[in-house]
Amino acid sequence: MAGKLHFNLVSPEKELISADVDMVEAPGAEGIFGVLPGHAPLMSVLAPGVVRVKNGADEKRIFVRGGFAEVSPTGLTILAEEAINVADLSREMIAQRIKDAEEDLADADVTQETREAAQTTLARMKELQAAL
After folding, report:
1. What angle do CA 125, 48, 110 make, to 5 degrees?
2. What is the domain partition of the chain in residue ranges?
3. 20 touches 36 (CB < 8 A)
4. Residue 11's pLDDT band (boundaries 50, 70, 90)?
5. To 10 degrees, what angle do helices 91-106 and 112-131 make?
6. Quick one: DSSP state of residue 47?
7. In terms of C-beta distances under 8 Å and separation of at least 24 residues, what long-range contacts does 123-126 make, across chains too?
8. Is 42 helix (H, G, I), strand (E, B) or coil?
9. pTM for this structure?
10. What is d(CA 22, CA 68) in angstroms, rounded to the nearest whole number?
11. Which residues does 42 contact at the CB level (< 8 Å), separation at least 6?
């Protein structure tokens, strides 16, 4: 396969990645999807999960807490609600997020939308905790 995929990963705080890479895997709302150079255009809602960026033998993993992905002829852009390099995550940080989500679920005054978001966050944080 010739060529590289231009990839941008942006969060509200900063641009985390802007590089030409071999492949990106992202956690879409309908499941994990991969993007290679020359991929057909698409847009997807992102679920909380890990974006894997592969370039040669190197692989970077970035946790995203939702967002949007757009594949265009110029490459892949991910606009993440929150993005943290997996190498920067600690077990304590993940444990605190699990505790917060469990408290949100236990709170009788939360809306159904908040409850569903907390359930999704809780499931993804437990997955991430198991992956560390």
Report:
1. 75
2. 5-86, 89-131
3. no
4. very high
5. 150
6. P
7. 124/47, 124/48, 124/49, 124/65, 125/48, 125/94, 125/97, 125/98, 125/101, 126/98
8. strand
9. 0.77
10. 20
11. 69, 70, 71
Integer Cα distance of 94 and 99 in angstroms = 9
Coil vs helix vs strand at 39: coil
Digit-coded pLDDT (tens) for 49-79: 899 999 999 999 998 988 999 999 999 999 9
For domain 5-86, give the CATH number.
2.60.15.10
In angstroms, the CA 97 to CA 74 distance is 36
What is the DSSP annotation of 121-132? Answer: HHHHHHHHHHH-
